[in-house]
Amino acid sequence: MKEETTFPRNDRREIxxxxxxxxxxxxxxxxxxxVLLGPYLVSxxxxxxxxxxxxxxxxxxxxxxxxFQAFCLAISVISLVIFLPILGAIADYTHLKKKLLAIFCYxxxxxxxxxxxxxxxxYIFAGILLIISNMTFAAANVFYNAFxxxxxxxxxxxxxxxxxxxxxxxxxxxxxxxxxxLIGNAEKIxxxxxxxxxxxFLGASLWWGIFGLISFSMIKSRNPAKSIPQNTNLVxxxxxxxxxxxKELVRLKYTARFLISYLFYNDGIQTVIxxxxxxxxxxxxxxxxxxxxxxxxxxIFIVAQFSAFVGALAFEKIAKFIGAKxxxxxxxxxxxxxxxxxxxxxxxxxxxxxxxxxxxLVLGSxxxxxxxxxxxxxxxxxxxxxxxxxxxxxxxTSWMGQLLFAIVVGFTNSYRQAILALIVFFVVGSLILxxxxxxxxIHEAGNLTPEEAATES
Length: 457
What we know:
Layout: H1 12-49, E1 56-57, E2 62-63, H2 68-92, H3 97-113, H4 123-151, H5 157-184, H6 193-218, H7 234-251, H8 253-284, H9 294-322, H10 324-344, H11 349-375, H12 383-391, H13 400-412, H14 415-421, H15 423-434, H16 438-444, H17 450-456
Antiparallel strand pairs: 1-2
């Protein structure tokens, strides 16, 4: 028996449950993918092949331990290019959106928990788990993001999306604080720092699973706007719907243009986030012959997470006055400044706090407003299909930036050169967005702008 077809939007309890999932998965993503796993994976690979040894040698580029995390992330995303949109298409034809969200959530929880057993020179094992956990994290986000349209009206999207990200940043901060206390006091309680890091992997993964369970109890399943044609199975429907979604994108030229813009600038953002821990660790410690300090890395990310919380709320207020598009462009200008600062200025410990604060400030605003703006450009009944395309370039699924970073590091053996190369993603993304008429994109999809929706309500 199917659940009720419709439920009222803007229900506070359901919105809280939806936000709670961001609280749940952001703790995992920040601790495991964003901060600890990069340096840990580098150390495992270096144990096996040496500091600058060769892991993979292709004709045109070489993968070393420094670029191994970026290479694994790129592999996971390339694998998702077809997989995610098909999943989204299937969800649009079924009432399984919440079940699929839960399934991929717990596949991610299990694979990331297994990182606890990655020790010694088992970098291949850890790399495979990174690929799986990143893929399932991204797959779950397809359905999570699509629920934003189900639970809110257009005039509430910017606020709810921003508050959802803000909740995630606070969850990430709390988990990082716990990890700092554990890693910083590892020897006092009789364990090694390596074991403390692996316990942190496990703790963040369980956090994701436990709070995710509470979230799923509050979110309501909706029946699909479309039904499966007779004598057709889900897989066939998935491929056909993907083709129809791509054809629809050709018609919705401004939505397509926004998606291309987002692909570029979010690739740059995600690569900066995912590689910042290895960049900072190398420039502050390894290059100076100093021992790696995981506690400092975690403290820096706490500053960034708190700053992101402030940025998500503050820039949502700015968007009320100048609009989401202009606010995103303002954020991208600051991102360009961060990349230049990292290349030309950054060298001392105090400077990393400045850089971390500014990264956080524009991280929250760019991601939250991009998600809510895009949600308004999606035709009714195709939410999951379109968010499947969106998730290809959403957090944890960047591939062009990761691949470029790995190639530049392989050729130059310099993290600074690799960071500077990412400026192209911010510039290209900003230029495409500048010439994208987002109001026409919303109207072409048959939706109202936030201002129009507020007037009608």
